[in-house]
């Protein structure tokens, strides 16, 4: 009985830590009316370009971000362990269909094992490009300065970073609609 109770306490603790990690920045965003940041211009007036990267896609092939030049791209840093990430997927699917052929989504998995990542993509039926972001060498969360999950970037046709949204926020979809109207 004591062993079962200890296991239950450990599982509850782990669930709490996971939820807190996923939602800490969401709470900051929810309380911040300026959740959508314009990142198109650096301090010196120059365009801020999305850092290029190459990661392995869900089919085991190398994917490079710059291969999508000419399309608006949404880069979505997420994980199957993140409740807010999963909660936002139905809306992402709607927008993927809405702008199919004019926009691409690149789902960047963070914090999952290879097996959990592939299972989540299959279970959620996510039709866009998916790449695996390994821990350690090759992890691109540092170059994108990821501070919470999900974090979404909207990248223009020329590779310019246009918007960044941390958390699952309706403002992301408003910004995407505005950008897509300009880009058409």
Topology at a glance:
Blueprint: H1 2-30, E1 36-38, E2 54-57, E3 62-64, E4 72-78, H2 83-98, E5 103-110, H3 114-124, E6 129-133, E7 151-155, E8 161-166, H4 170-183
Parallel strand pairs: 4-5, 5-6
Antiparallel strand pairs: 1-8, 2-3, 2-6, 4-7, 7-8
Instruction: State the helicity in percent bands.
Output: 25-40%
Q: What is the helix tally?
A: 4
- Spell out the helices and strands N to C: HEEEEHEHEEEH
Low-confidence stretches: 5-41
Strand content: 15-25%
What does this structure look like?
With 184 residues, this protein is α+β, with helices and mostly antiparallel strands. The protein has four helices and eight strands, in the order αββββαβαβββα. It has helices at residues 2-30, 83-98, 114-124, 170-183, and strands spanning 36-38, 54-57, 62-64, 72-78, 103-110, 129-133, 151-155, 161-166. An eight-stranded mixed beta sheet has the order 1-8-7-4-5-6-2-3. α3 (114-124) links the parallel β5 (103-110) and β6 (129-133). The protein is globular and about 40 Å long. Residues 5-41 have low confidence and may be disordered.
Overview in brief:
With 184 residues, this protein is an alpha+beta fold. The chain has four helices and eight strands; from the N terminus they run αββββαβαβββα. β5, α3 (114-124) and β6 (129-133) form a beta-alpha-beta unit.
């Amino acid at each position: 009985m004591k062993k079962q109770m200890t296991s239950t306490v450990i599982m509850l603790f782990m669930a709490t830590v996971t939820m807190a990690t996923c939602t800490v920045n969401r709470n900051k965003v929810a309380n911040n009316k300026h959740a959508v940041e314009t990142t198109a211009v650096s301090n010196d007036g120059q365009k801020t370009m999305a850092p290029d990267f190459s990661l392995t896609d869900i089919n085991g092939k190398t994917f490079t971000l710059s291969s999508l030049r000419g399309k608006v791209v949404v880069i979505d840093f997420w994980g199957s362990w993140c409740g807010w990430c999963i909660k936002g997927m139905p809306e992402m699917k709607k927008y993927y269909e809405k702008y199919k052929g004019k926009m691409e989504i690149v789902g960047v998995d963070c914090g999952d094992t290879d097996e959990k990542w592939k299972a989540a993509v299959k279970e959620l039926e996510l039709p866009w490009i998916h790449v695996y972001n390994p821990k350690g060498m090759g992890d691109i969360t540092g170059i994108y300065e990821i501070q919470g999950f999900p974090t979404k970037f909207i990248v223009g046709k020329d590779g310019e970073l246009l918007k960044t949204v941390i958390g699952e926020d309706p403002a992301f979809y408003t910004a995407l609609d505005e950008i897509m109207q300009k880009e058409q």
